[in-house]
Amino acid sequence: MSKTALITGVSGQDGAYLARFLLELGYRVVGSQRRSSSLNTARLAYLGIEKDVEYVDMDLVEITNVMRVVEEFEPDEIYNLAAQSFVGLSFEQPIYTADVDGLGVTRLLESIRVINSKIKFYQASTSEMFGSVEQTPQTENTPFFPRNPYGIAKLYAHWMTTNYRETHGIHACSGILFNHESPLRGREFVTRKITSQLAMVKHGHQDYMSLGNIDAKRDWGFAGDYVTGMWRMLQSEKPGSYVLATGEAKSVRDFAQVAALELGFDVVWVGNGVDERGVDRKTNRTIITIDPKYYRPIVVESLVGSPLKAEMELGWTRKVGFAELVGAMARSDDKQAQDRSLAF
Ligand code: NAP
Ligand code: GDD
Asked: Which site among 83, 99, 188, 270 is 20 to 30 Å from 158 CA-CA?
């Protein structure tokens, strides 16, 4: 008999890729969404699986709602991907972020404990928990030091996941995932912001784009590779915490340079600090400026993870490299800017 997976946050980037992966494996996929004025299935439609997923309304802030959904659909596995996932916004909405990203996870864990403690649970933890890093590269044993309300809420959820595993014997795993991107990434995150806006500049829909801290470094992988690691965690005999990462750090500046090249610009950087600009060598046009409004109140300068444990214990490997990832995102946005078909 096929297994049932409940994916919270199915409308997001990871939700879409995970749903496709599980459907290919023969799972019945139930996707929960928080109620809004319209069903947000654009990413699932892009992957051609919109009609293959069963949808249910579920908001992580409402415990009775969470319990009824878990009871009704009897999932074998729950993948908790739902979150207020934008670090910048968490400074403005710290309490909401704590409620959804922190307490929301306890609501799910309590539902599992009360309804059926055999349900396997995946929690979408994050490299933001390392924050002001105490060792490089970061591993499952690196001490945590989060530097924003998002990372702090996620750290609470990580420890609750660990605690329910140890206290109640639930097969609960925490995937400590470093940044992962794709053409389906939300446009407010820096990678997609760069590829979508530089494509708009290329096609004459805007003159230039603005960024914040371009020297920040992140470990960027492809979301499609990372969702397979989530599944592997729940299939392993022993539940635990696993880092998924590429092991390579690149700066926002590097990302912009490679994306620009893919879109036909040859960027040289001139000036310093807020006056720095990215100029297209061929036309001498400024296509990137710095705008302090995109600076964060406190910075996480550099994150880079070691995926060794996941590689050794789960047999997980990532397939897509940095240049390939940036190229795919830039080409997808080039096409969307050309057609002005802004689906998501
Ligand atoms: P995303 O695209 O922002 O998707 C987040 C999802 O959560 C959306 O489907 C959103 O629904 C849903 N959601 C938000 N608030 C909710 C609530 N109160 N109740 C129910 N659903 C709610 O994020 P993603 O990039 O796919 O990431 C998936 C998960 O992995 C998140 O938990 C994120 O924090 C974590 N993570 C991501 C990365 C990364 O680099 N992508 C790295 C580490 C960890 P709407 O469609 O209604 O907005
Ligand atoms: N969003 C954004 N916009 N970020 C910018 C900009 C800008 O204009 N300019 C520079 N940055 C820098 C940010 O300061 C940060 O250092 C880096 O680019 C990446 O920012 P985001 O793409 O917004 O992602 P994030 O690293 O803060 O968070 C993402 O990755 C986490 C895992 O490390 C999100 O997906 C989180 O949900 C996830 O947990």
From this structure: 188
